[in-house]
Amino acid sequence: MILPTVRDPRFVTLRRGGTLTDADHRLLALWAAACAEHVLDLFESVRPEDPRPRHAIEQARAWVRGEVKMMRARAAGGHAMGAARDLRGPARHAAYAAGQAGAVAHVAAHELGAAAYAIKAVRASVPEAEGAAAARRECRWQREQLPAAIRDLVLDDQRLRNDICWSVFDC
Asked: So where are the chain's domains?
């Protein structure tokens, strides 16, 4: 579970009664796509013939560009998560990261799911003794990718939801 029980109005668009602008929603989607793409090879090295996670990332970016509707990006995210079902370890987490990235078009708060699953994928891809250090490096890399306009929002979201995101944002 990566979503809070009570929705944060900062991740609800203005037209739905929250405070999130469309511009910031798009930035969240792009950041989530970057986080998922950064670990996509962990899935594709196991299932190179399965395009669903890559397609979800592409659809998230297409939604940002106005080329697809939210429902299409969200559906692609669901298909990416379906690609994870019978997998374990880094490949599974990487597919979930892509799925969460696709879902940002529908619910902006999925941005943290993409990042958290990407960190879990990296942690699971190395020997256990190296996992914590690898996770911290991935977390720092993700933070370096944050656009200035959403940096404070995402960092605060990480602080608030770190416990329900497996404490992966302790970097």
From this structure: 25-165
The radius of gyration computed from the CA coordinates of the chain, to the nearest angstrom, equals 15
Contact 73, 60 (CB under 8 A): yes
Question: What is the distance, to the nearest Å, from the Cα of residue 149 to the centroid of all Cα atoms in its chain?
Answer: 18
**d(Cα 22, Cα 45) in Å, to the nearest integer?**
35
Tens digits of residue pLDDT in 105-138: 999 999 999 999 999 999 999 999 999 999 999 9
This prediction's pTM: 0.97
CB atoms within 10 A of CB 60: 33
Virtual torsion, Cα 114, 118, 121, 126, nearest 10 deg: -170
pLDDT digits (tens, 9 = 90+) for 86-97: 999 999 999 999
**CA-CA-CA-CA dihedral for 153, 2, 108, 79, to nearest 10:** 150
Kindly tell me the burial class for residue 23, based on how many C-beta atoms sit within 10 Å of its own C-beta (0-12, 13-18, 19 or more).
Answer: exposed
Rounded Cα distance, 55 and 146, in Å:
22
Interatomic CA distance for residues 134 and 152, integer angstroms = 24
